[in-house]
Amino acid sequence: MKSEKHIVNLKLNIHLFGSEMKKSITAIALLIISFFLHENCFSQASKKTNFKVLVLYENGGHHLAFSKAAKPWLNKLAAENNFTIDYIENTKTINESLLNQYRLFIQLDYPPYTWSEESMKAFQKYMNDGKGGWIGLHHATLLGEFDGYPIWNWFSDFMGGIRFVNYIPDFASAKVIVEDKVHPVMKGVPADFLVQKEEWYTYDKSSRKNVHVLASVDESTYQPDSKIKMGDHPVVWTNEHFTSRNVYIFMGHSPDLFDNKAYTALFKNAILWASNKK
User: Fold this and answer.
1) Helix axes of 64-80 and 261-274: crossing angle, nearest 10 degrees
2) Domain region containing 9
3) End of a domain among 32, 48, 64?
4) Which of 92, 107, 174, 253 has minimal CB crowding within 10 Å?
């Protein structure tokens, strides 16, 4: 009888042990599933778009090659930093509603004329109200009377009160000198770097008195030398009188700039800083 009871108890214990094992295995399985679901959700969340960028680019003329080189570089940077880009080729669609959808507006070699009254007012409000950041390149300071359009006085003031005077049509290489080494836009950018094949605009005066200069070009390093000079010659700056973060980068003619590590570091930093990401 004792032997039979022992067997019954043993079977009961085995049954209970098996039941507990099943519960433990089920619990572990649920934990594993929960972990992977959480990781997947986290992964999906991390891939969500952080912000949107609008790029107004010049799709033609002398700057077409630069625009074509810029697009794949910008698209790669966007993928690596979780932001998206929309491209437009003219200012016809620019209004307050459109601009308010974007944290950053890049004026990629697009001049400050041919803008409609509505698009000008929308951009001015975007900058004055701190709705988003702005980066302008090269052709964005072609300020004056062109193609029958008057100078955009507000934009001239925004760029430091300057007016375009001349440029080096046959191009020249030159050394760019970083002036504010601690500004986030200049993080990782060498103290000086060479830029090849650039037009080097000159203006009626230096923008320095009205903006924060981040870099200037050393005109004594022009190769070949040119008589088209202006003395104090800022080429990268930000206008701190505006709530919106903004950066102007003069260099932006040759597509070869995207093979220049100093330039791409500068451009990347400007995008992340002006969009308030760093």
Assistant:
1) 60
2) 1-48
3) 48
4) 92
Report how many domains make up the chain: 2
Amino acid at 168: I
| pTM exceeding the 0.90 threshold for the entire prediction | no
The two structure tokens encoding residue 98? 């459109």
7 and 125 inside one domain:
no
- Residues contacting residue 129 through CB under 8 Å, at least 6 positions apart: 243, 244
Tens digits of pLDDT across the chain (278 residues):
545 555 445 454 545 445 554 555 554 544 444 444 444 444 444 456 699 999 999 888 888 999 999 999 999 999 999 999 999 999 999 999 999 999 999 999 999 999 999 999 999 999 999 999 999 999 999 999 999 999 999 999 999 999 999 999 999 999 999 999 999 999 999 999 999 999 999 999 999 999 999 999 999 999 999 999 999 999 999 999 999 999 999 999 999 999 999 999 999 999 999 999 65
239-259: b or e for each residue (b if 16 or more CB lie within 10 Å)?
beeeebbbbbbbbbbbbebbe
Q: Are residues 136 and 270 in the same domain?
A: yes
For residue 74, the domain's CATH number is: 3.40.50.880
Q: Which of 121, 124, 95, 89 is nearest to 107 (CA)?
A: 89
Same structural domain for residues 168 and 89? Answer: yes
Q: Does 34 share its domain with 135?
A: no
Residues 6+ apart with CB under 8 A from 33: none
Residues 114 and 35 in one domain: no
From the number of C-beta atoms within 10 Å of its C-beta (0-12, 13-18, 19+), residue 87 rates as: middle
Whether residue 262 sits in one domain with residue 216:
yes
Amino acid in the structure at residue 114:
T
Q: Which of 195, 196, 139 is nearest to 164 (CA)?
A: 139
